[in-house]
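Collaborator request, handled under Task 6.
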Amino acid sequence: MTRDPVSLVFHNFSMSSTTRRSESR
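Structure tokens returned to the collaborator:
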């Protein structure tokens, strides 16, 4: 795993998307 800004943003976006989806029932 690299500490690139793109990777971090992508990971953050993915996590946010999953959380939003789980929260939104």
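The cover message to the collaborator said: "The radius of gyration is 11 Å. Helices lie at 5-23. Please let us know whether this matches your experimental observations."
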